[in-house]
From TrEMBL:
Pfam families: adh_short_C2. Residues 13-192 form the Ketoreductase domain. Belongs to the short-chain dehydrogenases/reductases (SDR) family. This is 3-oxoacyl-ACP reductase. GO terms for molecular function: oxidoreductase activity, acting on the CH-OH group of donors, NAD or NADP as acceptor. Keywords: Oxidoreductase. PANTHER family: 3-OXOACYL-[ACYL-CARRIER-PROTEIN] REDUCTASE (PTHR42760:SF133), SHORT-CHAIN DEHYDROGENASES/REDUCTASES FAMILY MEMBER (PTHR42760). It comes from Gemmobacter aquaticus. It comes from the Bacteria. The keyword Ribonucleoprotein does not apply. The keyword Repressor does not apply.
Length: 256
């Protein structure tokens, strides 16, 4: 984990991260733990070993709640349990996603529905579950992870890029609807972050070289590179920022 800024207002805050035990999510969990937050995370696979590692690394153990986020009832139950054990959730990070590659002509209705359930529907229902508690507390922050893939018009995973675009629409609508309650909703769009999954499946030397040639900055992105941006969006330091998309991609998607 890179040394970074300290956000004192995150200390003691109740944070829920979807998919918080691997990849980018694992880096986010560690980042919030190091800020002194009370972190709960949900995922389908067992998170005990990761919790052990976090306790050893940070001195604090995150709360792991096994949950399939495509099952809305189970997701609501996990939100309620996290709030019961850590206090009302003040920060939600919708991070879980599946960027599986697929050919558009091979996509079935069942595949499409599952892709939307993971990559978009769960974001809405997680937000819906935490918003009443945020309202009662006088505010909160939701960070929805998207991707630059939809901005680039990339082929090879149309269901995923469709969901990414939808996340930005969802972010703006929720920001408008719940802004009067001082609930801020922002999106964070990373570029190609080299998680272990990416390295194992798609980050061939040729593919990586081609992508780095499109970045303004020469270095590949690692999971810890997006943590600071997420902490910023979750912190009151960004209290006047909502309905926005923060891009952290090394300069692939540039304007001007």
């Amino acid at each position: 984990m890179l040394a970074g800024a300290t956000f004192p207002d995150l200390r003691g805050r109740s944070v829920l991260i979807t998919g918080g035990g691997s990849g980018i999510g694992a880096a986010l969990t560690e980042g919030f733990l190091r800020q002194g937050a009370r972190v709960a995370f949900v995922q389908r696979r067992d998170g005990a070993a990761f919790c052990d590692a976090m306790q050893e690394a940070t001195g604090v153990r995150p709360l792991f709640l096994r949950c399939d986020i495509t099952q809305t009832g189970a997701l609501r139950d996990a939100v309620a349990e996290a709030a019961r054990l850590h206090g009302p959730i003040g920060i939600l990070v919708n991070n879980a996603a599946n960027d599986e590659r697929h050919a558009s002509l091979d996509v079935t209705e069942a595949y499409w529905d599952q892709a939307m359930a993971v990559n978009l529907r769960s974001y809405f229902f997680a937000a819906q579950a935490v918003i009443p508690g945020m309202r009662a507390a006088g505010g909160g922050a939701i960070v929805n992870f998207s991707s630059i893939s939809y901005m680039m018009g990339q082929a090879g995973y149309a269901a995923y890029t469709t969901a990414n675009s939808g996340i930005n629409g969802l972010t703006r609508s929720l920001a408008r609807e719940f802004g009067p309650d001082r609930i801020r909703v922002n999106a964070l769009a990373p570029g190609w972050v080299l998680t272990q999954r990416q390295k194992d499946l798609w980050a061939t030397p040729e593919a990586l070289a081609g992508h780095l040639a499109r970045q303004c900055l020469p270095d590949p992105l690692m999971p810890e590179d997006v943590v600071g941006g997420c902490l910023f969006l979750a912190s009151d330091i960004s209290r006047a920022m909502t309905g926005q998309a923060l891009v952290i991609d090394g300069g692939v998607v540039v304007t001007g």
